[in-house]
Amino acid sequence: MADYKRPTVSIVGAGNVGEHIANLIAIKELANVKLFDLPKKTEDKTFEVVKGKALDLKQMAAAVGVDVDIKGYNVTPDGQGYETLKDSDIVVITAGFPRKPGMSRDDLLTANVNIIKVIAERVALYAPNAVVIVVSNPVDVLTYVALKITGFSKNKVLGMAGVLDTARFKTFISQELKVSISNINCFVIGGHGDDMVPLLSVSNVGGTPLRDLFTKEKLEELINRTKFGGGEIVNLMGTSAYHAPGASVVQMVESILKDKKAIMPCSVYLEGEDARFYEAYDVCVGLPVKVGAHGWEELIKINLSEEEKAMWQKSVQSVKEGIERVKQLKLI
Question: Burial letters for 54-79: b for 16+ Cβ neighbours within 10 Å, e otherwise?
Answer without folding.
Answer: beebbeebeeeeeebebbbbebeeee
